Amino acid sequence: MSVALADLDRLQRAPATPLAIADRRAGTGLAVELGAAGKRFGERTVLDGIDLSIPAGRFVAVVGRSGGGKSTLLRLLAGLEAASSGWVLLDGRPFQGLPADVRMLFQDARLLPWQRVIDNVGIARGPDWRRRAATALADVGLADRADDWPSVLSGGQRQRVALARALVSRPRLLLLDEPFGALDALTRMEMHELLARIWDRDGFTTVLITHDVAEAVSLAYRVRVLKDGGIAFDAAAGARRPRQPDDPGVLALQRRVLAAV
Question: Given this model, what pLDDT does residue 112 score?
Fold first, then answer.
């Protein structure tokens, strides 16, 4: 997904209400609903009549091939694109622009090289930002790297910092655009475990865009396949976690998803 610097600035500096953030309790995710939502670019239809409902606090993965509209769908949910037809609601309400309770995580960590780690996490500043940034870094296991420069971190550590930056304002909806695709297998597994642990604790709604079927089945509670502009497959992955990769149910679901992609 290609995002302009202006988009990134909007994503990370969107206005927030610090008192509401400080008082927010776990399990208060945003409900997401799309009704007959479509998106056209000129004569090209990318999304065609998408109906999608995600209850508050659920973790949903959307799988699809490159160029299939996954990132466009995510941009609709982030307010970076407006639907050409139909409607998109967050907690039952229409919206314009990036809502304060929504954050995104990309494949590229997009850290500012001239800012130290803690400054990257607390980029939106605001009251008590340094303490909140330090807490977010502790959540991702990098409390001791707060004063480092991004250039000395590994790829996995940079992505942990990016996750901390996304979570520091306690979002109600987290949008993930293939955030672990560039990581090695072991680091990707560690990031999966980290994200699952924080999601279990905080209860924010999560939408993961990925082409990795195993990743989708491992993390999400529901998996949907986006194909030819519409939802071609929808199935529950089950509530039990961690899910073992050799579990017969996991393997069976992976085969069904692969057949639908």
Answer: 95
